[in-house]
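Can't attach files on this board, so I'm pasting raw text. These are the components:
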Amino acid sequence: MNTKSWGRNVAVGLLIAAFAYSGSMVWQHRSEEFDGSGVEVIRFAHWQLEPGMREAFDAIIADYEALHPNVRVKQVNRPGRVWRQWLRTQLVGGNPPDLVETANYLVTDEMLARYFVPLTDYLEKPNPYNSDEPDLAKGSWRESFVGELVPNEMVHYYSANLLEYYAVPNAMMTVRVFYNRDLVKSLTGDDRAPETFEEFKALCEALKNGAREQGERIQPLAGSIFNTRQMTASLARIVTQKLAIKIDYGHDLDLSMFEGNVEYLRGRWSYDTPEVRQSLELIKEVCRYMSPGWVQMKREDAMLQFLQGQAAMLATGTWDASGILQQAQFDVGIYRMPVIDLDNERYGQGALGPISESNTFGGVPFALSQTSKHPERAIDFLRYLTSRRGNAKFAQISNWLPVVKGVPIPEMVEVFRPIADGYIPGLSAQSFGQQTDKTYESHVHLLSGERASVEAYIEATRDLYPKAIRRELVRMAKTYRETIRQKDSVMTGLHGLEESADLARSKFDIVAAKQIEVEALMLQAQRTIEDYPVED
Amino acid sequence: MTDTIKIPGTSWTWRLSALVPLLVALSVSAQNGNSEDGWRLLSRYLYADAAAEFQGDDTGSKLGLAASLLNKPPVTPGKIKQAEELLREVIRQDGSADRAQYARYLLVRVAHLHLEATVSEIESGYREVLAMDEESPVAQIAASHLALVLLYQRPDLSVEARLASAADLGSMAAHPQLPEVAVSYSRTLAGAAMYYGVVDQRVLSWLEAAHEIGSADELIRIGVVLQLAEVSRLLGLNEKAVGYYQEFIAQAVPTDQRVNTAKLRMHELEVSP
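---
Top answer:
Structure tokens for the assembled complex are below.
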């Protein structure tokens, strides 16, 4: 047999094997669906492949199946990077899993309406699996969650356009700094976690000096754009808290990204504004302790750098906690982002205090697909999963923050407990929408390394930010226009359904009110663009 | 026993002719009977599915089809034109005054959001909708949108004139039949004034009106209370501001990040009244 025909035979063999594998998967799947024994099979899909997650879900599934011997719950795991395409294929093919992890940036309102079941009515009834919990038994399922699932536009479990809950969350997420205690001790002689920004800087300096003295190539901080944002976002927003109140023209102590963009074009703040310069100084101070080339690195690279002992600290979220704790070959410490003292001469003037994390909303939400063959069973499993006992087991095994009231936070991740008594976030000079993010990311190297300079950053971006912010407002106006146009059709539908009823407080009334508010934003954006022109 | 009059040769004709109205009724019902499904699909952002349901010749189906076509993907100038024609037919057929008014309102929306008509055309379009029946829910919504045009699309007017002309629409736009729309209208007036840098007694009154009606959305409700506190503070009405701060702190939802900041600002006023 010559090489050519051998290669062809291998290719054919592989094709047959792949076909056989696919066929067996389809057969296996169908046999699960059509099990003649009366067993109900619930498929439950998510992209949380972090260590501890599958184990936590498996343990809860085992408990649930013990309670309901005629039910089998199967986990379907797919990586986050292929989730969007995979989910679309499943939905369009008419065969999605019963329960599907969702997020508002992955699933549009149209997809929610077409493929998923509104869960509002279920959530307003008690969760029977909390019936032996005196404080939760009489309240609704929704009220059993920390924060009671207050609906707003940011959350993943509620559609502000469809005015319905579409998913039920399982965990909360916050960001903290992980550190290699062994390494910190060996380089500095102490492993105490810093509490203030000045202490943090002193620690970074000591780590740098210690590494140099011992001839080690170790960086104080593991870096990537993702991790640096986690670290600098909250610090930079502290020094601009008072500025945010000053330029918040809506006077509601909530400077939105939209208002920040409008106020920039109206000249009420710029990158020369002292507080904004200070926030850039602060970013520079953090970035100088990163490894060279961190701007090009990915989140996984930073994690590897930390786990291999090449960097002493890493800023990341609850989602990485279990992975780090399981894989690290050293003693891991975790601390909250250092605070900026109000009497800090350099950064304290514009600060109010640490940023409140009370708005931390529930993540890892699961939605029910419309094609589920056992919708009531799937809801029942979801109730069990998010009951106090289910969520306690989840938190205990996964080391993620629980989302149900009264569930103890595992000792190991107690430090992740959201800060409830902080203050509003200030203006973020590094993140002002899609357009400005690109400007930041392509120039942040100027704030990094030995020759880092805020002046150089400001000069290099002086002509870019006005254009980027104008483009951002144009983009926002376009998005608002699309939303408004859609609402015209939706309102006609609601009017057709409700015209003979009392319309006060009806969905028609609520959607019409929301449309007016969005239209006001669109027109404000257009007015600003017209009144404060920028050459593009 | 019932006596029946039998006319030879007519029994089948009679029976068949009796069936005709029934068949017509069934046919109309088959054509229009899907309206309920159509409205439901339309209300759930499913425009293409809704368009398939609205195939009748009645005004309801035409209105539903027009509204579906405005967003049925891909949205094309041809579909927008077809929607306009359907809406004009509804107005001509005038199925009911209410439906004709809604069709006219949608025509103005098409002109405003799809066709980029001139501001004077849009303004007169909304005023025509109002003239049909000022008391209707559609008129209330049209008045609110007209207020937005006056607030943001009339740069030829001074800021004062923009605010005054939008406020003049209050009798229609703040009607209690749609309380959420009424709240939105009052917040819109206050929001526009603050956007233009106007913070005075009028802003306080508009926010107070929104507060008095009260939104069912608790985030909007408490947001208005905090705005009242901050605006009162700016106007030097410290006692009033403290009252609103207290109300906000008592009612804020557990996920609100602003509570501590509100406390801080309230204490500043209490320390130096």
